[in-house]
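Bug: token stream looks shifted between consecutive jobs. Job 1:
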Amino acid sequence: IKKRQQDVVRFLEANRIGFEEVDITMSEEKRQWMYKNIPEERQPAQGNPLPPQIFNDDQYCGDYDCFFEAKESNTVFSFLGLKPSLASKVNIAITDLYDSSCDLQLEFTLREAERSTCSC
């Protein structure tokens, strides 16, 4: 999971997409928000969704597999609901680097009014 986190973070940094880390292990409210805002069809059969889970504000974009597919097909900005030239932020929930039982949310909020619909 650490490798997946680093992959997403490197992409965001390389493309100058701002983000703010929020540790959801310290906030049950934020953790529940993340779980609640993942569409039912994207929920695992058992347990909670594994990070990273990616959001653009309240809009769910997808998980790491969706991000990776978008990266491979050069459609990540569309996946994130962004236009390539916009300076923006997105939400990502990821597992803590040191303890796989902890969750960490990288929180990003879109700065520009225009955005596309993200879909996985």
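Job 2, same session, no restart:
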Amino acid sequence: MSKQYKQTEEYIDVDDEIQNTAQQTGYAWEEEYKRSWDVLQEDEDGSLKRTVENFQHRMKRKKLFRDTSTIRRGIIRHIFLIIDLSESMMEKDLRPSRLELTLSYAEQFILEYFDQNPISQLGIIVTKGGIAEKLTDLTGNPMDNIRVLKNKKNTDTDGEPSLQNSLQMARSTLIHVPAHGSREILIIMGSLTTCDPGDIYETIDSLVNENIRVSVVGLAAEVQICKFMCKKTKGTYGVVLNEAHFKDLLFEIIPPPPVSVAQSKAELVIMGFPCSVTDSSPSLCACHSKPTTNGYICARCNSKICDLPTDCPVCELTLVSSPHLARSYHHLFPIDNFVEVPWNSAFTTHCFSCQIPFPSTMTSSLGTRVAPDTSGRYKCNKCNQHFCIDCDIFVHEVIHNCPGCLATTSSNH
């Protein structure tokens, strides 16, 4: 699957920017009163352009500060996405509504999840009216999941959610996942209540025993049982502040988590690399029993399947392509964060990758030389090449390879 990199303008909330940069010691209402408008300072020409650019620049850099240490991660993931379809999802505190925004972000999450984890699987469960319903089982095809989300019949709201029923339904499938694959549950919950038939604490204990990690994105307020469950299962729990923060919390789940101690035992995984075929006449595929001319032939049983990656429905062999496997490895060997270059070392004039000119000191209306707050240059510590902020993001989020290091390696050979 190809991914197009698009540079988009993002909404800037000054209050959230201050809140994120400050040291968080408790809840927001326990902190001192802040005059957030004081950070909006005009430059010598009376413009706020430089202040806004600094905020945008800081937001881009904040997304790149991630753990780049080489630790063991599970690149074969199995995750269930549980979506709350209770009546509380019709609230409009998130525009256009909680439900519409959730479905939109869920589609983006699914595409990004499979782009970054191409040999993983994902299924969807919805909960409303005190029951849980499985829309799709674990599958490696993102379009199967997106197709059911676009069906209006599957997204009608009703009553209250059932956290316990949803967890039990996901657990019943995840317990059959092989030991080399991670077991995860991601819940998008807009309700502050849950209608459960039994003791949910027993369900949480069973999730811990089965090494199932649960993460929750709350749309309303912090719920004690969700916080307890995430802490117990070593997942993450966050409550959204606005639409942009909702997307940030959701996309934090995309990188694979570290392997737990119970899964640290190394073992070999049997995989097959099927051949692509194009028949002159249609033949039935083993996965959907539909006539197709294009497909892939299983390396073990010679069955015909439609898409990769997947498990062969006949012999249950994991089928992948070599690009899928190679693309999964960037999580295991991440690129080090680029270092911001100070003005006294900013001698380069153009970005090494895209060749756009770097910012330089400029003359104000008063005739003085003024330098921007940052040099706009970011250096790779291995090849010492300088990159702009957009190329920095593109390298770390899309291609996962440093162009400067690759150019140095090719020239040496």
